[in-house]
Write a structure and sequence with these properties.
Elements (H helix, E strand, L loop, with lengths): L1 H30 L3 E5 L2 E7 L2 E9 L8 E8 L2 E8 L4 E6 L2 E6 L7 E3 L10 E4 L8
Parallel strand pairs: 1-9
Antiparallel strand pairs: 1-8, 2-3, 3-7, 4-5, 5-9, 6-7
C-alpha cells in the first residue's frame, strides 16, 4: 500500500510539473528573443536639376550600416517575425540629412532599429512596437 501512495504522489507531481511547463514555455521562449523596434522610411523630395523626385529617404545616421527588416511568417501555426537583410540597396545623393533610396528599399518595409542584442538573417525576434506595423 505504501508503494502505491508513493507512485501516486510521484505521478501527480510529474503531471503538475508538465502542465506548468506547457503553460509557461511560450513566455519563456519569447523572453529569450532579441527585442527590436521597427520604423518606416519617409518619402521626401530630392532635387535633380529643376525637378523634384519623391523617393524613400534613409536618415544619414543609418548610412553605411547593415540594414535589416522584419518579415511576417508562421511557425507552428503561430505568427512570428523573422529578420531579413536588406540587400542590393542603392543610395543616391544626400540632401538635408537624408539619402535618396533609388533601389532596394520601399516606404512600406518595416526596418529594424535599436535591436536589444545581435541579430542575424533568419533569426526570430520580438517586435516591441507591433502597433506601428502598416500590415
Amino acid at each position: 500500500m505504501q508503494k502505491r501512495k508513493i507512485i501516486l504522489v510521484i505521478s501527480v507531481m510529474f503531471y503538475l510539473t508538465m502542465g506548468v511547463l506547457a503553460l509557461c514555455s511560450r513566455g519563456w521562449y519569447q523572453a529569450g528573443l532579441p527585442k527590436v523596434r521597427i520604423f518606416y522610411l519617409d518619402q521626401r523630395a530630392f532635387r535633380e536639376d529643376r525637378t523634384y523626385h519623391y523617393l524613400p529617404a534613409l536618415p544619414e545616421s543609418y548610412y553605411g550600416q547593415t540594414l535589416y527588416y522584419v518579415q511576417r511568417t508562421y511557425k507552428n501555426k503561430e505568427l512570428c517575425y523573422v529578420v531579413a537583410e536588406a540587400k542590393d540597396v542603392v543610395l543616391g545623393k544626400e540632401e538635408n540629412g537624408y539619402y535618396a533610396v533609388e533601389d532596394g528599399l520601399t516606404v512600406y518595409l518595416p526596418l529594424i532599429v535599436d535591436p536589444s542584442g545581435d541579430i542575424a538573417e533568419g533569426q526570430e525576434v520580438l517586435v516591441e512596437n507591433e502597433e506601428d506595423f502598416l500590415w
